[in-house]
Amino acid sequence: MTGPKGVKRARANIIGDAHIKTTAPSVEEISQNIQHLDPQTVTDLLIQAAHIHPDVMSMVDDAIRVIREKEQNRIINFEHYSSSVWKSINITYGSMRGGAQYDVSFEVAQSIVDTIKLITKQCGPFTNPQTRFNGLSVLRKIGKTIALSSNDTLGHEVQKRFQWDTSLVEGMLEIIDSMMEDERREIREDESSPESLWPKLEELEQLAEDYCIHPGLGAVLDRLDPDAREDEEEWDEDEENENEENEEEESEDEDEDEDGVQAQS
Questions:
Q1: Of all residues in the chain, what percent carry a pLDDT higher than 90?
Q2: What angle do CA 22, 26, 28 make, to 5 degrees?
Q3: Which residues contact 173 (CB under 8 A, 6 or more apart)?
Q4: Model pLDDT for residues 111-153, shown as the tens digit of each residue
């Protein structure tokens, strides 16, 4: 008889389950691990987590709501940007010779473009309406400063930049597009004084035309008051057609008079 086959004994688990974490990592541990990731990876992981877990998506929505509430309650004043641009064009480099002003003009012009973009970025659709108004007003001031800054080499070169650069116009249009209709209406209907924004925008449009800068600025006023501007263009066209018709009639009358004189001769 053969004896029973030996049963293989299980190998003893010497280390046990010590290598398996049974508790959730602390917030500090998670934070330390996330610090090793680049921003894009963090964004991608958050998107995946929000897509899979509704509670994560809810947390994202809550965070966005808090940010928007803060933006709505905060009014930003941009006047210091306008003063800074004016000073950089008219004061800071005023003692330099023409050649030195020319060299620094490109840096100054680019800093103005960067300032315009910075202001525009802070005037989005979720910001306080007064912030958007302030931003548009200051961009208007910067535009006027550029228009009146051709007294020296630096100012002239900055003007030349904005003969083709549309940053100012694009920024103003972006802010206007973020406004509600009642905000736009309030601007275009307020002509109570020369200090109101609407007449100042009309002044800037004329300056831009005179100095051949800020191409497309008329679109800013069109966006604020499309109906009235369209009616004005139609009226100008009708008046031009009427003048042409009058000139044709006068020309015909002159021809008839000449024919009459020749017949009498």
A1: 60
A2: 150
A3: 219, 220, 223
A4: 999 999 999 999 999 999 999 999 999 999 999 999 999 889 9
CA 1 – CA 27 distance, rounded (Å) = 66
Which residue's entry shows tokens 């964004």? 43
Longest dimension (CA), the chain: 158
Task: Give the residue from 164, 139, 142 showing the smallest Cα distance to 87.
Answer: 142
Return the structure tokens found at 191: 């002509």
Distance of CA 62 to the CA centre of its chain: 27
Distance of CA 187 to the CA centre of its chain: 18
Of 212, 223, 209, 208, nearest to 172 by C-alpha is 223
What tokens does 143 get? 């535009």
> Higher-confidence residue: 223 or 234?
223
How far is the CA of 111 from the CAs of 37, 85, 160, in angstroms? 32, 9, 15
Q: Which residue has the tokens 């053969």?
A: 2
Whole-angstrom distance, CA of residue 208 vs CA of residue 206 = 5
Cα–Cα distance between 224 and 228 in angstroms, integer? Answer: 10
How far CA 199 is from CA of 31, 50, 82, 236, in Å, comes to 54, 49, 19, 20
Between the CA of residue 79 and those of 76, 86, 210, what are the distances in Å? Answer: 9, 11, 26
